Amino acid sequence: MAVVIIGTLDTKSEELGFARDVIKAQGVDVHIVDVGVMGDPVFEPDTSASEVAEAAGTTLDHLRDNADRGEAMEAMSDGAAAVAEGLHDEGVLDGVLGLGGSGNTSIATAAMRALPVGVPKLMVSTMASGDTEPYVGSRDIAMLYSVADIEGLNQLSRQVIANAALAMVGMVANEPDVEVEDRPTIGMTMFGVTTPCVQTARKILESKGYETIVFHATGTGGKAMESLIEEGIIDGVLDVTTTEWADELVGGVLSAGPERLDAAGKAGIPQVVSTGALDMVNFGPRESVPEEFAGRQFHVHNPQVTLMRTTPEENAELGEIIANKLNAATGPTALVLPMAGVSMIDVEGEDFYDPEADAALFDALREHLDSDVEVVEMDTDINDEAFAETLAETLDAYMREAGLGPKA
Fold first, then answer.
1. Among 269, 287, 334, 385, which is least packed, fewest CB within 10 Å?
2. Beta carbons within 8 Å of 297's beta carbon, 6+ residues apart
Protein backbone atom coordinates (compact mmCIF):
# COMPACT_ATOMS: atom_id res chain seq x y z
CA MET A 1 0.00 0.00 0.00
CA ALA A 2 1.65 3.21 -1.17
CA VAL A 3 0.83 6.81 -1.97
CA VAL A 4 2.72 8.38 -4.85
CA ILE A 5 3.52 12.06 -4.28
CA ILE A 6 4.31 14.11 -7.38
CA GLY A 7 6.11 17.41 -6.95
CA THR A 8 9.11 19.58 -7.67
CA LEU A 9 11.85 18.74 -5.21
CA ASP A 10 13.98 21.67 -6.37
CA THR A 11 11.39 24.19 -5.12
CA LYS A 12 8.90 22.38 -2.85
CA SER A 13 11.02 19.85 -0.95
CA GLU A 14 10.02 21.14 2.48
CA GLU A 15 6.30 20.85 1.76
CA LEU A 16 6.60 17.48 -0.02
CA GLY A 17 8.72 16.10 2.78
CA PHE A 18 6.14 17.19 5.32
CA ALA A 19 3.35 15.42 3.40
CA ARG A 20 5.52 12.31 3.15
CA ASP A 21 6.16 12.27 6.88
CA VAL A 22 2.47 12.66 7.75
CA ILE A 23 1.56 9.73 5.50
CA LYS A 24 4.39 7.50 6.74
CA ALA A 25 3.40 8.19 10.34
CA GLN A 26 0.10 6.46 9.52
CA GLY A 27 1.89 3.30 8.39
CA VAL A 28 1.51 3.92 4.65
CA ASP A 29 4.46 3.79 2.26
CA VAL A 30 5.32 6.79 0.09
CA HIS A 31 6.89 6.91 -3.36
CA ILE A 32 8.04 10.40 -4.37
CA VAL A 33 8.24 11.35 -8.04
CA ASP A 34 10.38 14.42 -8.67
CA VAL A 35 9.29 16.56 -11.64
CA GLY A 36 11.50 19.57 -10.93
CA VAL A 37 13.52 20.87 -13.86
CA MET A 38 15.26 23.99 -12.59
CA GLY A 39 17.61 22.56 -9.97
CA ASP A 40 18.74 19.49 -8.06
CA PRO A 41 16.46 17.87 -5.47
CA VAL A 42 17.05 18.65 -1.82
CA PHE A 43 16.56 14.98 -0.95
CA GLU A 44 16.62 11.81 -3.03
CA PRO A 45 13.30 10.89 -4.68
CA ASP A 46 12.14 7.39 -5.52
CA THR A 47 11.72 8.37 -9.16
CA SER A 48 14.08 11.11 -10.30
CA ALA A 49 13.36 14.01 -12.61
CA SER A 50 15.81 12.44 -15.06
CA GLU A 51 13.72 9.27 -15.15
CA VAL A 52 10.56 11.32 -15.69
CA ALA A 53 12.17 13.16 -18.60
CA GLU A 54 13.36 9.88 -20.11
CA ALA A 55 9.84 8.48 -19.85
CA ALA A 56 8.79 11.39 -22.08
CA GLY A 57 11.48 10.58 -24.65
CA THR A 58 13.88 13.38 -23.75
CA THR A 59 16.56 14.19 -21.19
CA LEU A 60 16.67 16.47 -18.19
CA ASP A 61 19.79 18.15 -19.59
CA HIS A 62 17.94 19.03 -22.77
CA LEU A 63 14.99 20.46 -20.86
CA ARG A 64 17.30 22.55 -18.69
CA ASP A 65 19.58 23.82 -21.42
CA ASN A 66 17.53 23.98 -24.59
CA ALA A 67 13.82 24.01 -23.81
CA ASP A 68 11.56 26.87 -22.86
CA ARG A 69 9.17 26.56 -19.93
CA GLY A 70 6.27 25.42 -22.09
CA GLU A 71 8.23 22.58 -23.70
CA ALA A 72 9.63 21.50 -20.34
CA MET A 73 6.18 21.47 -18.75
CA GLU A 74 4.73 19.42 -21.58
CA ALA A 75 7.56 16.89 -21.43
CA MET A 76 7.39 16.47 -17.66
CA SER A 77 3.60 16.12 -17.85
CA ASP A 78 3.96 13.34 -20.42
CA GLY A 79 6.72 11.71 -18.42
CA ALA A 80 4.81 11.90 -15.14
CA ALA A 81 1.78 10.31 -16.80
CA ALA A 82 3.93 7.46 -18.14
CA VAL A 83 5.60 6.96 -14.75
CA ALA A 84 2.27 6.92 -12.93
CA GLU A 85 0.82 4.38 -15.35
CA GLY A 86 3.89 2.19 -14.88
CA LEU A 87 3.76 2.37 -11.09
CA HIS A 88 0.06 1.53 -11.15
CA ASP A 89 0.65 -1.45 -13.43
CA GLU A 90 3.41 -2.66 -11.10
CA GLY A 91 1.09 -2.42 -8.09
CA VAL A 92 3.25 0.26 -6.47
CA LEU A 93 0.65 3.03 -6.72
CA ASP A 94 -2.54 2.98 -4.65
CA GLY A 95 -3.21 6.72 -4.72
CA VAL A 96 -1.66 9.96 -5.97
CA LEU A 97 -1.12 13.22 -4.10
CA GLY A 98 0.11 16.41 -5.75
CA LEU A 99 1.18 19.72 -4.21
CA GLY A 100 1.97 22.91 -6.06
CA GLY A 101 1.12 26.00 -8.03
CA SER A 102 0.04 26.18 -11.65
CA GLY A 103 3.14 24.36 -12.92
CA ASN A 104 3.02 21.25 -10.79
CA THR A 105 -0.77 21.26 -10.89
CA SER A 106 -0.53 20.81 -14.65
CA ILE A 107 2.08 18.08 -14.34
CA ALA A 108 0.59 16.13 -11.44
CA THR A 109 -2.97 16.20 -12.77
CA ALA A 110 -1.71 14.98 -16.16
CA ALA A 111 -0.42 11.93 -14.31
CA MET A 112 -3.71 11.58 -12.46
CA ARG A 113 -5.73 11.74 -15.68
CA ALA A 114 -3.69 8.81 -17.01
CA LEU A 115 -4.97 6.57 -14.22
CA PRO A 116 -8.25 4.64 -14.11
CA VAL A 117 -11.35 5.99 -12.43
CA GLY A 118 -11.40 4.79 -8.83
CA VAL A 119 -7.71 5.29 -8.06
CA PRO A 120 -7.62 8.01 -5.35
CA LYS A 121 -6.33 11.31 -6.76
CA LEU A 122 -5.93 14.52 -4.75
CA MET A 123 -4.30 17.77 -5.86
CA VAL A 124 -3.50 20.52 -3.34
CA SER A 125 -3.24 23.57 -5.53
CA THR A 126 -3.24 27.34 -5.64
CA MET A 127 -5.43 26.93 -8.76
CA ALA A 128 -8.21 24.94 -7.10
CA SER A 129 -10.66 27.80 -6.55
CA GLY A 130 -10.84 28.80 -10.21
CA ASP A 131 -11.63 26.95 -13.42
CA THR A 132 -10.43 23.41 -12.71
CA GLU A 133 -11.66 21.77 -15.92
CA PRO A 134 -8.22 21.86 -17.62
CA TYR A 135 -6.79 19.93 -14.67
CA VAL A 136 -9.64 17.55 -13.84
CA GLY A 137 -10.88 16.79 -17.34
CA SER A 138 -13.12 13.73 -17.18
CA ARG A 139 -11.34 12.02 -14.28
CA ASP A 140 -12.24 11.70 -10.58
CA ILE A 141 -9.62 14.15 -9.37
CA ALA A 142 -10.26 15.95 -6.08
CA MET A 143 -8.76 19.43 -5.83
CA LEU A 144 -8.11 21.15 -2.51
CA TYR A 145 -7.44 24.88 -2.49
CA SER A 146 -4.19 25.59 -0.65
CA VAL A 147 -5.46 29.03 0.56
CA ALA A 148 -1.91 30.33 0.91
CA ASP A 149 0.77 29.74 -1.69
CA ILE A 150 2.67 26.50 -1.27
CA GLU A 151 5.88 28.24 -0.29
CA GLY A 152 7.30 27.17 3.03
CA LEU A 153 5.60 25.66 6.05
CA ASN A 154 3.51 27.75 8.43
CA GLN A 155 0.50 27.22 10.67
CA LEU A 156 -1.87 27.42 7.68
CA SER A 157 0.04 25.35 5.13
CA ARG A 158 0.84 22.62 7.65
CA GLN A 159 -2.85 22.16 8.41
CA VAL A 160 -3.94 22.12 4.75
CA ILE A 161 -1.18 19.74 3.66
CA ALA A 162 -1.72 17.48 6.68
CA ASN A 163 -5.44 17.29 5.92
CA ALA A 164 -4.66 16.31 2.35
CA ALA A 165 -2.12 13.71 3.41
CA LEU A 166 -4.53 12.17 5.92
CA ALA A 167 -7.30 12.18 3.33
CA MET A 168 -5.06 10.14 1.02
CA VAL A 169 -4.31 7.73 3.82
CA GLY A 170 -8.01 7.30 4.44
CA MET A 171 -8.68 6.60 0.76
CA VAL A 172 -5.91 4.06 0.22
CA ALA A 173 -6.08 2.32 3.59
CA ASN A 174 -9.79 1.56 3.62
CA GLU A 175 -11.81 -0.66 1.33
CA PRO A 176 -15.27 0.78 0.65
CA ASP A 177 -18.10 -1.50 1.73
CA VAL A 178 -19.73 -1.35 -1.69
CA GLU A 179 -21.49 -4.29 -3.28
CA VAL A 180 -20.26 -4.86 -6.82
CA GLU A 181 -22.43 -6.92 -9.15
CA ASP A 182 -21.30 -8.45 -12.41
CA ARG A 183 -23.89 -6.86 -14.68
CA PRO A 184 -23.56 -5.36 -18.16
CA THR A 185 -23.14 -1.61 -17.91
CA ILE A 186 -25.09 0.94 -19.92
CA GLY A 187 -23.89 4.53 -20.34
CA MET A 188 -26.69 7.10 -20.60
CA THR A 189 -26.72 10.86 -21.20
CA MET A 190 -29.11 13.27 -19.52
CA PHE A 191 -29.94 16.97 -19.27
CA GLY A 192 -32.53 18.62 -17.05
CA VAL A 193 -34.84 18.88 -20.06
CA THR A 194 -34.54 15.15 -20.85
CA THR A 195 -34.64 13.87 -17.27
CA PRO A 196 -38.08 12.15 -17.38
CA CYS A 197 -37.04 10.15 -20.43
CA VAL A 198 -33.75 9.01 -18.94
CA GLN A 199 -35.27 8.16 -15.57
CA THR A 200 -37.94 5.96 -17.18
CA ALA A 201 -35.46 4.24 -19.49
CA ARG A 202 -33.01 3.70 -16.64
CA LYS A 203 -35.61 1.98 -14.48
CA ILE A 204 -36.59 -0.31 -17.35
CA LEU A 205 -32.99 -1.30 -18.08
CA GLU A 206 -32.17 -1.87 -14.41
CA SER A 207 -35.27 -4.06 -14.04
CA LYS A 208 -33.90 -6.20 -16.87
CA GLY A 209 -30.59 -6.71 -15.07
CA TYR A 210 -28.37 -3.91 -16.40
CA GLU A 211 -26.27 -1.47 -14.40
CA THR A 212 -26.61 2.09 -15.62
CA ILE A 213 -24.25 5.07 -15.39
CA VAL A 214 -25.89 8.40 -16.19
CA PHE A 215 -23.70 11.25 -17.46
CA HIS A 216 -24.79 14.88 -17.29
CA ALA A 217 -24.35 16.19 -20.85
CA THR A 218 -22.37 19.26 -19.81
CA GLY A 219 -19.29 18.74 -21.94
CA THR A 220 -17.21 16.97 -19.33
CA GLY A 221 -20.02 14.45 -18.91
CA GLY A 222 -19.92 13.50 -22.57
CA LYS A 223 -16.12 13.33 -22.48
CA ALA A 224 -16.26 11.08 -19.41
CA MET A 225 -18.64 8.67 -21.11
CA GLU A 226 -16.54 8.54 -24.27
CA SER A 227 -13.43 7.86 -22.16
CA LEU A 228 -15.05 5.04 -20.20
CA ILE A 229 -16.29 3.46 -23.42
CA GLU A 230 -12.71 3.49 -24.71
CA GLU A 231 -11.56 1.83 -21.48
CA GLY A 232 -14.10 -0.97 -21.90
CA ILE A 233 -16.05 -0.13 -18.76
CA ILE A 234 -19.29 0.55 -20.66
CA ASP A 235 -20.90 -2.30 -22.62
CA GLY A 236 -23.72 -0.42 -24.36
CA VAL A 237 -24.89 3.16 -24.80
CA LEU A 238 -28.27 4.88 -24.57
CA ASP A 239 -27.25 8.30 -25.85
CA VAL A 240 -30.50 10.14 -25.22
CA THR A 241 -29.00 13.62 -24.97
CA THR A 242 -26.65 14.63 -27.78
CA THR A 243 -26.95 18.35 -26.99
CA GLU A 244 -23.19 18.79 -26.57
CA TRP A 245 -22.89 18.76 -30.36
CA ALA A 246 -25.01 21.93 -30.53
CA ASP A 247 -22.50 23.68 -28.29
CA GLU A 248 -19.58 22.32 -30.32
CA LEU A 249 -21.09 23.56 -33.58
CA VAL A 250 -22.46 26.95 -32.52
CA GLY A 251 -19.98 27.95 -29.82
CA GLY A 252 -21.70 27.26 -26.51
CA VAL A 253 -19.95 26.54 -23.24
CA LEU A 254 -20.81 22.84 -22.88
CA SER A 255 -19.05 21.27 -25.86
CA ALA A 256 -17.64 17.77 -25.45
CA GLY A 257 -15.36 18.23 -28.43
CA PRO A 258 -15.42 16.92 -31.99
CA GLU A 259 -14.85 13.31 -30.86
CA ARG A 260 -18.27 13.14 -29.20
CA LEU A 261 -20.24 10.16 -30.57
CA ASP A 262 -17.09 8.38 -31.77
CA ALA A 263 -16.20 5.93 -29.00
CA ALA A 264 -19.19 3.57 -29.10
CA GLY A 265 -18.98 3.27 -32.86
CA LYS A 266 -15.25 2.54 -32.79
CA ALA A 267 -15.69 -0.01 -29.99
CA GLY A 268 -18.47 -1.75 -31.91
CA ILE A 269 -20.77 -1.86 -28.90
CA PRO A 270 -24.55 -1.48 -29.23
CA GLN A 271 -25.79 2.08 -29.17
CA VAL A 272 -29.21 3.68 -29.34
CA VAL A 273 -29.05 7.41 -29.97
CA SER A 274 -31.59 10.23 -29.89
CA THR A 275 -31.67 13.98 -30.42
CA GLY A 276 -32.15 15.15 -26.83
CA ALA A 277 -31.78 18.92 -26.28
CA LEU A 278 -30.45 19.68 -29.75
CA ASP A 279 -32.86 22.61 -29.62
CA MET A 280 -30.45 24.53 -27.40
CA VAL A 281 -26.99 26.01 -27.06
CA ASN A 282 -25.73 26.72 -23.53
CA PHE A 283 -24.18 29.89 -22.13
CA GLY A 284 -23.59 31.30 -18.67
CA PRO A 285 -25.49 34.28 -17.23
CA ARG A 286 -27.51 36.23 -19.77
CA GLU A 287 -24.94 39.04 -19.90
CA SER A 288 -22.22 36.53 -20.84
CA VAL A 289 -23.81 35.61 -24.18
CA PRO A 290 -21.55 36.83 -27.03
CA GLU A 291 -22.75 39.92 -28.87
CA GLU A 292 -22.80 38.01 -32.16
CA PHE A 293 -25.96 36.23 -30.97
CA ALA A 294 -27.96 39.39 -30.32
CA GLY A 295 -31.49 38.98 -31.59
CA ARG A 296 -31.62 35.21 -31.10
CA GLN A 297 -34.26 33.45 -29.00
CA PHE A 298 -33.21 32.82 -25.39
CA HIS A 299 -34.55 31.02 -22.36
CA VAL A 300 -33.06 31.82 -18.94
CA HIS A 301 -32.86 28.43 -17.27
CA ASN A 302 -31.49 29.91 -14.04
CA PRO A 303 -29.29 32.91 -13.15
CA GLN A 304 -26.18 30.98 -14.20
CA VAL A 305 -27.49 29.22 -17.33
CA THR A 306 -28.90 30.84 -20.47
CA LEU A 307 -30.18 28.68 -23.32
CA MET A 308 -30.30 29.79 -26.96
CA ARG A 309 -32.62 28.16 -29.51
CA THR A 310 -30.88 26.48 -32.45
CA THR A 311 -31.96 27.62 -35.90
CA PRO A 312 -33.17 25.48 -38.81
CA GLU A 313 -29.80 26.02 -40.52
CA GLU A 314 -27.86 24.91 -37.44
CA ASN A 315 -30.15 21.92 -36.98
CA ALA A 316 -29.64 20.83 -40.58
CA GLU A 317 -25.89 20.89 -40.01
CA LEU A 318 -26.27 19.02 -36.73
CA GLY A 319 -28.29 16.35 -38.50
CA GLU A 320 -25.55 15.81 -41.06
CA ILE A 321 -22.83 15.66 -38.39
CA ILE A 322 -24.68 13.14 -36.24
CA ALA A 323 -25.60 11.02 -39.26
CA ASN A 324 -21.96 10.83 -40.30
CA LYS A 325 -20.94 9.84 -36.77
CA LEU A 326 -23.50 7.03 -36.69
CA ASN A 327 -22.61 5.88 -40.21
CA ALA A 328 -19.05 5.27 -39.00
CA ALA A 329 -20.19 2.89 -36.23
CA THR A 330 -18.96 -0.70 -36.42
CA GLY A 331 -21.60 -2.08 -34.05
CA PRO A 332 -25.41 -2.21 -33.99
CA THR A 333 -26.77 1.34 -34.06
CA ALA A 334 -30.25 2.85 -33.92
CA LEU A 335 -31.50 6.42 -34.03
CA VAL A 336 -34.85 7.06 -32.35
CA LEU A 337 -36.51 10.37 -33.23
CA PRO A 338 -39.08 12.21 -31.06
CA MET A 339 -41.11 13.95 -33.74
CA ALA A 340 -43.09 16.08 -31.25
CA GLY A 341 -40.15 17.69 -29.48
CA VAL A 342 -36.53 17.05 -28.52
CA SER A 343 -36.67 18.57 -25.04
CA MET A 344 -39.01 19.63 -22.27
CA ILE A 345 -39.18 23.17 -23.69
CA ASP A 346 -39.44 22.10 -27.33
CA VAL A 347 -43.11 21.15 -27.10
CA GLU A 348 -46.20 23.12 -28.05
CA GLY A 349 -46.73 26.06 -25.71
CA GLU A 350 -43.10 26.16 -24.50
CA ASP A 351 -40.36 28.68 -25.36
CA PHE A 352 -38.37 26.60 -27.83
CA TYR A 353 -41.25 25.01 -29.73
CA ASP A 354 -40.18 25.31 -33.37
CA PRO A 355 -41.47 22.61 -35.75
CA GLU A 356 -39.50 24.12 -38.64
CA ALA A 357 -36.18 23.83 -36.80
CA ASP A 358 -36.95 20.28 -35.67
CA ALA A 359 -37.96 19.30 -39.21
CA ALA A 360 -34.63 20.57 -40.51
CA LEU A 361 -32.84 18.32 -38.02
CA PHE A 362 -34.92 15.24 -38.83
CA ASP A 363 -34.75 15.78 -42.59
CA ALA A 364 -30.95 16.08 -42.51
CA LEU A 365 -30.67 12.91 -40.47
CA ARG A 366 -32.85 10.98 -42.91
CA GLU A 367 -30.94 12.35 -45.89
CA HIS A 368 -27.46 11.48 -44.65
CA LEU A 369 -27.93 8.26 -42.66
CA ASP A 370 -26.81 4.99 -44.22
CA SER A 371 -29.29 2.15 -44.49
CA ASP A 372 -27.54 0.02 -41.87
CA VAL A 373 -28.47 2.51 -39.13
CA GLU A 374 -31.93 1.62 -37.86
CA VAL A 375 -34.25 4.64 -37.69
CA VAL A 376 -37.33 4.69 -35.47
CA GLU A 377 -39.68 7.67 -35.63
CA MET A 378 -42.27 8.26 -32.92
CA ASP A 379 -45.05 10.88 -32.82
CA THR A 380 -44.24 11.78 -29.23
CA ASP A 381 -41.90 14.19 -27.49
CA ILE A 382 -38.70 12.88 -26.01
CA ASN A 383 -40.04 12.73 -22.44
CA ASP A 384 -43.10 10.66 -23.28
CA GLU A 385 -43.08 7.34 -21.40
CA ALA A 386 -43.64 5.36 -24.60
CA PHE A 387 -40.57 6.99 -26.17
CA ALA A 388 -38.37 6.02 -23.20
CA GLU A 389 -39.71 2.47 -23.34
CA THR A 390 -38.82 2.21 -27.03
CA LEU A 391 -35.29 3.42 -26.34
CA ALA A 392 -34.76 0.89 -23.56
CA GLU A 393 -36.34 -2.04 -25.39
CA THR A 394 -34.36 -1.34 -28.58
CA LEU A 395 -31.06 -1.25 -26.70
CA ASP A 396 -31.93 -4.38 -24.72
CA ALA A 397 -32.64 -6.25 -27.96
CA TYR A 398 -29.31 -5.13 -29.43
CA MET A 399 -27.43 -6.12 -26.29
CA ARG A 400 -28.93 -9.61 -26.23
CA GLU A 401 -28.32 -10.14 -29.93
CA ALA A 402 -24.67 -9.21 -29.38
CA GLY A 403 -24.38 -11.61 -26.45
CA LEU A 404 -23.95 -8.74 -24.01
CA GLY A 405 -27.26 -8.97 -22.19
CA PRO A 406 -27.71 -9.83 -18.52
CA LYS A 407 -26.96 -13.36 -17.48
CA ALA A 408 -29.95 -15.47 -16.52
1. 287
2. 308, 309, 351, 352
